[in-house]
Amino acid sequence: MILKGSQRGSAKQLGLHLLKTEENEHVELHEIRGFVAEDVIGALREAEATAKGTKCSQYLFSVSLNPPETENVRVETFETALSAIEEKNGLTGQPRIVIFHEKEGRRHCHAVWSRIDAETMTAKPMSFYKNKLREVSRQLYLENGWQMPRGLIDPKDRDPRNFSLDEWQQARRMGRHAGDLKEMIQEAWATSDSGRTFAHALEERGLYLAKGDRRGHVAVTFEGEVISIARATGIKAKDLKSRVGDPADLRSVEDTRKRIGEDILPRIKSHMDEARTSAAADKELLEERRLAMARSHAHERMKLDLGQKARAEQEARNRAERFRKGFGGLWDRLSGQRAKLEKQNEIEALWALRRDQEQRQAMIAVQLQERHALQFEIRAMRSRHAQALRDLHFDAANYRLMKRGQEPRAMPSFEHAKPRTPPVQPQPAPRKPDVQKDINAERLDDLRARSSTPSRPQDRTEERLRRLRQNKRTSEDRGPEPER
């Protein structure tokens, strides 16, 4: 599973984020260890109060554990990963909080440790924690037989569409997906070979090349948001400048926004509004289904928890009734019968706990499978409407080319390669008969004929043995006579 960690403070803000239900369909508090408080906010505030006695400002260590989306990962696997993280980073025994989130059909875990050692009032050092988390992540992929991402094997091969929290929040303000924005910029870069073609490729995707205040080359979206091209593509500023040119020659962000508002927006605004209205209607229908499914799943889990709790209480009473009272109970203690009953009750209680865990895990797996199917429909809808918006931006770019008197470009899907005529192969000149080759062939045939003819008849092994037994060795058997 992918592990992402960070050192931080702001206990209350982190607690509110972990308990947020607007974006997470299910939030489950799994464990609070080492704190007096029994709620998340209180426990994090307790860690903050402990850190007041030190000079440490980043007194929390937060890690998110993201397993493969298609895998059904058990709680025990998460606990094994948490133990490995603690051991690698020297956090064994430190107070911690573990919370499970479910979002978009994906179940992941958040863990927060307090770095402050209450006995020594010092902060646990977190040197090279990213490298340590990467080692633990690789080990988890190998132990569980999951397909390891290429970016985890070699950081240079990581998925270029991965985005940070800032990029995701920026995309949310525009109503788009952060991975789609980065993918569009990378496609424009891959299909261009100069600054002019790169700018046109961006405009076909609703992005406009401009000069940033601090980032050099930037892309301005149709909504006016600014995206760094170097960060989106992973290209160094030097290589970007060699292909696109000096950013000082481009329009500023303010001029680009003015151009979008004055030149492009009036022409395609009506079509954009229509496309967004259609997308909003489809999104609303799927959102209603998503919320209804989340409520149904939450009700099923609550019903299961209540049923398991009632059954556990009844089973505990039944086990307690096995112990006799009075003189009978005293006799059971003396005879060892009570010790046997205690051992039996302990085994049955452990078995009941495992049974309830298996039952809950099976329900979560079925619900995640249902949520995966719905998420597939959501992604298909998002991709369909994103393609419609991209086509509108392509038309706007072509209209501007026609306004300048240039020939418009065809859609990429309609661009067909010209049929290539296969080159005419030159006919080889007639060769003269090779006399030496014929002579060699005749010699080879002669040698084969000679080797197939035996030089002299060979006696069979049985005949030679028979003559030896009769002591009738011929001159041929004895070999040549010695000279006298």
TrEMBL record:
- Give me the stretches of Pro residues compositional bias: 420-430
Pfam families the UniProt entry points to: Relaxase
Basic and acidic residues bias locations: 431-449, 473-484
Provide the MobA/VirD2-like nuclease domain boundaries.
21-146
Q: Where is this region: Disordered?
A: 410-484
User: This protein is called what?
Assistant: Relaxase
